[in-house]
Amino acid sequence: MNKLFFCILLSSLLLILRVDAAQAQTGSISVSGKITATENGQPVRQASISIDRKGVGTATNTDGLFALIIPANNLHDTLKVSCIGFKTKLFAIAGLTNGATMNIALEKSITELKEVNIAYYDAPKIIQKAIDRIGANYINHPHILRGFYRMYTFSGTAPLQLSEAVFDVYNFGYADKHADLFRLIKARNEKSERDFSKLELGQKPNSVFEHDIVNHLAACGFLNDEGLQNHQFNVAGITDVKGYQAYEIDFKEKPGIVGATYRGRIFIDTKTYAFIYFDFGLSPTGLADLGTGSFASRSLMRMGDVQIELESDHTEVSYQEVGNKWVLASVGGDNVLNVQNPNSKSALLANVKFNYQVTAVDTVQKQPFSSKLGRNESINNHDSNAGEKFWKDYNILLSDYNTEDIFKKLQTINKALK
Predict the structure, then answer these.
(1) Could you read off the pLDDT of 94-121 as tens digits, one per residue?
(2) Which is deepest, 83, 181, 249, 308, by most CB within 10 Å?
(3) For residue 300, is it within any domain?
């Protein structure tokens, strides 16, 4: 990271963390810092920084940086810092001060089942047991997830589109068949009409809902009935996942199966059989089929006279314990689209990075939203006022880039076209 960008990022971080008079009255505190690996001092990306079992949290960016607002009613709880492949660390929040900077080094944690024992584990049976226990393992009464997402599309160094939103998802319960509800709190979106005019990417409530794999198994191309038949699953070992011992199950398409198939890993808690982490992407044949099950297809809001080929597809979905039940924690997506314009005979490689973080879980609220967004309504259509203080009062994910500069650059490009 160059010095200029670091200074800009640090200034933005301090701006986010500044607590105004109204916020100070609530008694909340803000902490920030950096997570690194003890082994080599390198930043740890996607480390979770959360209030243990309370549902309030955030995650680190590529540079290992984070910022978190801790509500007043959590000041006597425990801060949990965890990441797959590393030992978990706990801190008493009572020992932290407002504005504290935490530089935390995590040690690697490697726990694997001896290879000779792996054959004794039946992966399909473990998966079926995990599916059967969803109602018992996950929050199974009405609750609200406060979420934040950022979706950035770019080609090389040129920004194409940037979208951010804070929202609430009302979940009736993980074993309840009622449809989720969506309430938008705040959003902003800018797209280059010069370089990306034929295409628009974004999210709608239905796509946000389906990112929660466990709550929407029917939409999951490898865990729904057809997906279970079309893929082969094998236990690769037992490993530590953020302090939990988990079966690591590898999967890929069965020989001869074509279409929207997947390859990846599923991690299931060895004690409760809860799904706690997914790491997957479309198979080579799946990449050729831009079907309804892919992240890219769910994110297409508008497509003009262009052709799209999916070059790469990668998704990560993680879950967290709130109390003694599990609930969604975060979703990450990384895709590359080859956008071809047959009229101009031009092609554009568009990188799409998506990060969705659950920043709070309310298990007390029982009543559904009175105001909500339609399931297939584009969140991009609800643009709030932007500005440097846009997210000041919200827990968000720190960006890997200067979002304010990108929004301004996209606005400048579009103004020049008028």
Answers:
(1) 999 999 999 999 999 876 554 545 656 8
(2) 83
(3) yes
